[in-house]
Specification:
Mean pLDDT: 95
Distance between the termini: 37 Å
Structural class: alpha/beta
Strand content: 15-25%
Bound molecules: pyridoxal-5'-phosphate
Number of helices: 14
Low-confidence stretches: none
Helix content: 40-55%
């Protein structure tokens, strides 16, 4: 059931294949080409598509439909929370851990970065002392699950701390959606960001879920769409696909034990074959689909290229620009030594992953260790 039989796609955290139900919803939405803001029948049909998807996305995270704001990406949902909410609620600072996604870190000044432990879990004592020290009203931002390591963050405790000190709290759940249950009401956070293309929808659609009573200044001013909180004619096809993918999330969650078993077998065989390999965040609760592993002595880029030649798609745990390898900011924030971080890759599984994909990965990856040792 691999999305493309000629390739073993093990990069679900970068983006997922489009679910058939989502593709179908996108395609059938083309018949409803009206502008959702138009009052005539064509407009009303398009509006119905958007509102149907809104209900599905809200249900996925146990929120009310009127608290879902569609955006153009997870990145934009984070910006809307961290700029739009801080502006409306008069917060003067945003604090968050150094392991956050770049779309969040862009709003967290260097001196407001909270430490994480060696497994990549936010240091709650450091968060509490930041909340005690900062006299201004602040906003805390914390990701549900890290995109590189899969490490889960203590959301409940972070929300309690934020409440204790009267701070707002935003949760980036882009990577967690579809991989673990999310419940906006039970969590009690002020906002939560989502992205369609991480759960089988199409790229270019995101969502910000807000708590009742939360005020938000439009980050994108213009027309009055999305209850004046995000201007721009709605991406009806993308939103339709997001809704269909959200409805399929229950099936994705049912598949988690199978994925977890595949991932655990893969990690066991990696460590048995290459005892010097290092799996990051292994001692912390993690998403069932994600492995971030370093192969000392072999750069991320070499591994990614060799695996690609063998028909296996994974991500580098580091970025390469102008011939220079930059280690991942997530691993550096976890205190990982730069050279080890430069040898990290991320393997992320999903609903299309089979035993054969894991075998193909291992067959290509295990010999890389021998080439470095030689
Ligand atoms: N937040 C996290 C944790 C992510 O992993 C990503 C994407 O990789 C984003 C935000 C950004 O989402 P989008 O690609 O929809 O802009």
């Amino acid at each position: 059931m691999a999305p493309n039989d000629s390739q073993s796609y093990l990069d679900y955290n970068a983006t997922t294949p489009v679910l058939p139900a989502a593709a179908e919803a996108v395609a059938s939405s083309f018949a409803h080409y009206g502008n959702p803001s138009s009052v005539h029948a064509a407009g009303r049909r398009a509006r119905a598509v958007v509102e149907d998807a809104r209900e599905a996305v809200a249900a996925m995270v146990n929120a009310a439909p009127q608290h879902v704001i569609f955006t153009g990406s997870g990145t934009e949902a984070n910006a809307l929370a961290l700029r739009g909410m801080t502006a409306a609620m008069r917060c003067n600072a945003v604090v968050g851990a150094g392991i956050e996604h770049p779309s969040v870190l862009a709003h967290v000044p260097e001196n407001a970065r909270i430490a994480v432990n060696g497994n990549g879990v936010i240091d709650l004592a450091a968060l509490e002392s930041a909340l005690q020290t900062l006299l201004e009203p602040v906003m805390v931002t914390v990701m549900a699950a890290n995109n590189e390591t899969g490490v889960l963050q203590p959301l409940k405790e972070a929300v309690e701390l934020a409440r204790k000190y009267g701070a707002l709290i935003h949760v980036d759940a882009v990577q967690a959606a579809g991989k673990m249950p999310l419940d906006m009401r039970a969590l009690g956070a002020d906002s939560m960001s989502l992205s369609a293309h991480k759960i089988g929808g199409v790229k270019g659609v995101g969502g910000l879920i807000i708590r009742a009573g939360v005020d938000l200044a439009a980050d994108m001013p213009g027309g009055g769409q999305e209850r004046r909180r995000r201007a721009g004619t709605e991406n009806v096809p993308g939103i339709a696909g997001f809704g269909a993918a959200a409805r399929a999330v229950k099936t994705l969650l049912d598949d988690v034990p199978r994925i977890s078993a595949l991932r655990d077998r893969m990690e066991a065989q990696m460590l048995a074959g290459v005892p010097r390999a290092v799996i990051f965040g292994k001692a912390a609760p993690r998403l069932a689909n994600t492995t971030c592993v370093a192969l000392p002595g072999v750069t991320s880029e070499t591994q990614v290229m060799r695996l690609d030649l063998a028909g296996v798609a994974v991500s580098a745990g580091s970025a390469c620009s102008s011939g220079k390898i930059t280690p991942s900011h997530v691993l550096l924030a976890m205190g990982v030594e730069a050279n080890l971080a430069k040898a990290a890759i991320r393997v992320s599984l999903g609903w299309g992953t089979t035993d054969a994909d894991i075998d193909r990965f291992l067959k290509a990856w295990l010999p890389l260790a021998a080439s470095a040792a030689a």
